[in-house]
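User: Hi! I have a protein structure encoded as tokens and I'd like to know what sequence might fold into it. I'm fairly new to this, so please keep things simple.
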């Protein structure tokens, strides 16, 4: 119907561009601070090469997720590349007591030097509840602490989401409700490959993935009853299928199965309609890891077709 409105051509084209399927959700990859072989920290030029390469991937990759800010000078090394390639960053803050203050300081310096344009949100910690590294109350306090720091800075808006990333089991655990209530977003790491107590063969992996998403949404909804800010959004912050490594239950690692999982899961989470949601794939390149979840090989070659219908 809107095509009948007497809009000038340029505003109409702008609207069509803004509402294109490639702009609706963040589609990204997890990126580690070290090179794929683990030999050294990534440099600013390494991030430029990586983010430029991601822009050649299908599905209009828009973002990356980092695990830390201070370690390897990660944030200040990555931001120039993000700005030059129009890539958004989900910042990672290490909550370990020895690192937390330095991590906060690195984020503050990054904002003071580069503003806000490059940032989509901040994850306070990663899988810390699952690993038992911190109590729910202490983690919730750190989430409030970082958000409070950001709110005092010029240019801050509520579009900058602050939350935590953890496994589905951690989010199902009602003792972690305080963390959910502190979050703007809840990041779920979902790996059917490791769900050995269920039918986790590749043919059933997509079903297990979406069950995990819905179960986390249910847990978040229950924990958020009475929360003034409403229900935190659920993002997929890690998922993928290994191309090598040991069989886990009925899950067999292979390049073909990694492709099958991508076509089933990535192509549905990246979609504008239906089940689309913010998703960060694990991972671009970790070819020395066993199992390896990489989509690129040792020489930078694409391991499987990542195009989606």
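Assistant: Happy to help. Inverse folding works backwards from shape to sequence: for each of the 309 positions I chose a residue that suits the local structure. Here it is:
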């Amino acid at each position: 119907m809107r095509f009948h409105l007497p809009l000038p051509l340029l505003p109409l084209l702008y609207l069509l561009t803004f509402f294109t399927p490639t702009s609706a959700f963040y589609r990204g990859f997890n990126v580690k601070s070290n090179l794929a072989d683990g030999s050294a920290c990534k440099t600013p030029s390494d991030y430029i090469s990586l983010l430029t390469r991601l822009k050649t991937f299908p599905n209009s990759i828009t973002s990356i997720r980092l695990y830390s800010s201070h370690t390897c000078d990660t944030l200040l090394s990555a931001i120039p590349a993000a700005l030059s390639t129009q890539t958004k960053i989900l910042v990672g803050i290490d909550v370990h007591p020895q690192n937390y203050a330095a991590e906060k300081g690195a984020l503050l310096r990054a904002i003071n030097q580069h503003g806000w344009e490059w940032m989509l949100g901040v994850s306070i910690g990663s899988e810390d509840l699952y690993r038992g590294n911190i109590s729910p109350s202490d983690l919730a306090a750190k989430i409030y602490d970082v958000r409070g720091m950001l709110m005092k800075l010029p240019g801050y808006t509520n579009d900058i989401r602050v939350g935590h990333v953890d496994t589905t089991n951690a989010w199902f655990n009602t003792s972690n409700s305080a963390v959910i209530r502190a979050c703007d977003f809840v990041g779920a790491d979902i790996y059917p490959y490791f769900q050995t107590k269920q039918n986790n063969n590749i043919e059933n992996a997509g079903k297990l993935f979406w069950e995990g998403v819905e179960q986390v949404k249910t847990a978040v909804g229950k924990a958020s009853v009475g929360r003034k800010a409403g229900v935190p959004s659920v993002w997929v912050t890690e998922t993928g299928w290994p191309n090598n490594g040991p069989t886990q239950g009925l899950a067999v690692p292979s390049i073909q199965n990694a492709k099958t999982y991508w076509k089933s899961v990535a192509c549905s989470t990246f979609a504008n309609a239906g089940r689309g949601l913010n998703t960060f794939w694990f991972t671009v390149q970790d070819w020395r890891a066993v199992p390896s979840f990489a989509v690129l090989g040792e020489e930078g070659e694409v391991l499987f077709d990542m195009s989606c219908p």
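A useful reference point when you look it over: Residues 1-23 have pLDDT under 50 and may be disordered. Feel free to ask if any position seems puzzling.
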